[in-house]
Specification:
The protein has 10 helices and 10 strands. By secondary structure, it is α/β, with parallel strands linked by helices. Helix 1 packs parallel to helix 2 and helix 4 packs across helix 5. The protein starts with 5 loop residues before the first strand and ends in a 9-residue tail after the last helix. Bound molecules: 4-(N,N-dimethylamino)cinnamoyl-COA.
Length: 259
């Protein structure tokens, strides 16, 4: 698939996806969603060939300022629900991706854009970042799981206040709330993002994949995350990856998981 709304670059195992609609503050239109689907569901990104993925926005003003409001008009109830379900599927695939996906939030992170950031495993922000779920300003509610993931990340009280007031919070507040894990200057955002991905990339790849699975299971009502951890712990002990990690410790050398 030819990418139009996204830029994809791959540098030594780290993929960077840049949402590239700066004139509309990188708002998520149909093309953006289709291309994310291609990358994360239809095999456009080969997780086995990568150590991680960074998602960011083009320009210095916005990560993503929400879903593209110009596409909201004349949608029937059924079409709206179908669009919402499609977004849920794409964002669920990002959340379940087997290698770390990090949102490097470089400006406005609003509505469907903030929902995208929240589907990523890790979020870091530049000092000028602003976060919010302004759907109620439009007489709407979030459609890409914002009512669920915001509660998971920052708790019910703070989530309800942000969802009902449509207030934006700045980067230090997002850090204080636990919505992001680091705040950097705009200049060092991507460098910091890459450093985190490369650090994770030096660990056992299957251990990272299974960690993601176990953590996601905590929030999945159909799963017993505790049981999943017990099962996968047993499995991991039998892997070559674990043998290499333990052997490297005993031989006082750095483990080499990717040879
Ligand atoms: N959609 C389309 N265009 C957008 C946009 C958006 N979300 N956000 C900004 N733009 C465009 C502006 O219209 C403007 O275009 P021009 O006038 O230059 O042609 C350009 O980007 C620059 O924006 P501003 O001139 O407004 O820039 P400011 O610095 O003055 O303001 C702002 C920045 C981020 C505060 C402001 O642009 C703003 O309030 N933007 C809208 C934020 C927002 O309400 N976003 C939508 C949240 S609701 C659905 C599923 C999910 C959703 C909806 C439906 N279905 C399943 C159907 C989710 C909805 C949302 O995300």
């Amino acid at each position: 698939m030819e990418l139009k709304a996204l830029n994809l670059s791959i540098n030594d195992g780290v993929a960077t996806i840049t949402i590239n609609r700066p004139k509309a503050l990188n708002a998520i239109n149909k093309d953006v969603m289709d291309e994310l689907k291609y990358l994360f569901i239809d095999g456009g990104l080969d997780a086995h060939a990568l150590m991680g993925v960074i998602i960011t926005g083009s320009g210095d003003k916005a990560f993503v300022a929400g879903a593209d409001i110009t596409e909201f008009t004349s949608v029937t109830k059924e079409e709206g629900s179908n669009l919402s379900e499609k977004g849920h599927n794409v964002y669920n695939a990002i959340e379940a991706f087997s290698i770390p996906v990090l949102a490097a939030v470089n400006g406005f992170s609003l509505g469907g854009g903030n929902e995208l950031a929240m589907a990523c495993h890790i979020r870091i922000a530049s000092e000028n970042a602003r976060f919010g779920q302004p759907e109620v300003n439009l007489g709407l509610i979030p459609g890409y799981a914002g009512t669920q993931r915001l509660v998971q990340l920052i708790g019910k009280g703070r989530a309800l206040e942000l969802l009902m007031t449509a207030d934006m919070i700045d980067a230090p507040t997002a850090l204080h709330y636990g919505l992001v894990t680091h705040v950097t200057s705009a200049e060092t955002l991507m460098e910091t993002a890459e450093k985190i991905i490369r650090k994770i990339g030096s660990k056992g790849p299957e251990a990272i994949q299974r960690t993601i699975e176990c953590v996601n299971a905590y929030f999945d009502k159909a799963e017993d995350g505790f049981k999943k951890e017990i099962d996968l712990f047993g499995h991991m002990l039998t892997t070559d990856e674990c043998k290499e990690g333990v052997q490297a410790f005993l031989e006082k050398r750095k483990a080499n998981f990717r040879s």
